[in-house]
Design brief:
The protein is an alpha+beta fold and about 400 residues long. It is about 45% helix and about 20% strand.
Length: about 400
């Protein structure tokens, strides 16, 4: 027979979970300790039904009161510990249970009024939106004016981040419970509570604290969002300046390529501005809901910066395109003015003259298969000849 003690079992006939507290305090269970009881499945191997017996509350010879518990019947399979649970965690839970049950551990300087209590459970599993397992849970018969549906006691001996503790704590508050978290420093080496009183905040106050926690987290996220927008603005300014200068340097080498880059750049920057404006609108919507003047001022400043940078960039692009157009028009005009042909030759005849280097007479331009050349007016009598028309060729 195992000497291990347990505080809840299964009533074999009905399949209901019952606790030692119920067998001694619930009128529907008082006096039924002789019914067939079996251990809960978490302590059994698959397929086992371990018979259990109830030991009623009694006093030891030294006057110490031992509250009711269950133990395995003789010649039954050995019960196992909960998977992953340490000896310290198990003993701490049992000592909290016994202390609350007996009144040795007070809540807000008062022993627990058992007349208000429906049940005291270990490893209580909630049935709300989330599946939550609580180490020790006191459930009230009716909603308590201060503590709500009940009081939970969580014993956290392993490492857990503060953020995880807060989230798990408020998950229980949302389900309607008040409670407290205990760590190793709250217990003696024998895993008994190091003090005899536990202060529990009211459920109403815990709900207010939850609202404040959510609001602070929301404001923190908004501030982070503003920082992201500021960084994007800085990157936008640097990228825009670098792209503009790079494209200005490339204009001399390839005008057509530069035109394409300008069109692409304008499209990209417009997309960026639209994206930033979308983010800005979201920020303004949040700021309006929160009625935070500071966020509104920041949003207006961002709008001004975006518009200013966009106007500057578009003005630069327009100026460079106009310069290119003017340069092209001048080049085309010169080409048309100096273009070879009948009109060009007649227009410039007499403007440039050459004399034959052989006979000294004047020379004229003639066309051959090799192009336009200078010929003496007595050619071929005089063989004065200069290949190329010089200025006209350029």
């Amino acid at each position: 027979m195992s000497d291990a003690t347990y505080l809840s079992v299964i009533h074999k006939e009905t399949g209901k979970l019952i606790t030692a507290f119920q067998l001694e305090n619930d009128a529907t269970w008082i006096g039924r300790g002789k019914d067939k009881l079996i251990a809960t499945s978490i302590y059994c191997n698959p397929g086992e039904n371990v018979g259990m017996v109830f030991v009623e509350t009694f006093k030891k010879a030294n006057g110490k009161r031992v509250h009711g518990y269950f133990r395995a019947m003789p010649n039954q399979p050995t019960l196992k510990s909960i998977s992953g649970e340490s000896y310290g965690h198990k003993k701490a839970k049992e000592n909290i249970y016994a202390g609350i049950y007996s009144g040795e551990i007070k809540i807000d300087n008062e022993p627990l009024d058992k007349e208000l209590v429906k049940n005291i459970l270990l490893e209580h599993r909630s049935v709300g939106e989330e599946y939550i397992i609580t180490d020790v849970m006191v459930l009230f018969k009716d909603v308590h004016p201060k503590y709500g549906l009940g009081i939970f006691f969580e014993i956290q001996l392993s490492k857990q981040t503060n953020e995880e503790t807060i989230e798990r704590h408020y998950a229980r508050v949302i389900e309607g419970f008040s409670g407290v978290w205990l760590t190793q420093k709250d217990f003696t080496p024998e895993w008994k509570l190091a003090y005899d009183n536990i202060n529990i905040e009211s459920h109403r106050k815990l709900l207010c604290m939850l609202e404040e926690y959510k609001e602070n987290n929301f404001i923190k996220r908004i501030n982070n969002y503003g920082d992201i927008i500021d960084k994007k603005l800085i990157n936008f300014e640097n990228d825009a300046i670098n792209v503009v200068f790079q494209n200005i340097r490339n204009i001399k080498d390839d005008i057509e390529s530069y035109k394409k880059e300008i069109i692409k750049l304008a499209g990209d920057e417009i997309s960026k501005i639209e994206f930033e404006n979308k983010q800005l609108k979201e920020l303004k919507d949040v700021a309006d809901k929160l009625d935070l003047n500071k966020l509104q001022e920041q949003a207006d400043g961002i709008t001004f910066k975006i518009n200013e940078k966009a106007d500057t960039l578009l003005n630069q692009v327009t100026f460079e395109i106009n310069q290119i157009k003017n340069g092209l028009n001048q080049t085309y005009k010169k080409i048309n003015d100096w273009r070879l042909g009948e009109v060009g030759i007649e227009k410039h005849s007499g403007v440039i003259e050459k004399n034959c280097e052989v006979c000294g007479k004047s020379m004229k331009i003639g066309k051959s298969m090799s192009g336009h050349n200078w010929y003496c007016i007595d050619f071929p009598k005089c063989d004065g000849f200069i290949k190329g028309v010089g200025v006209y060729e350029n």
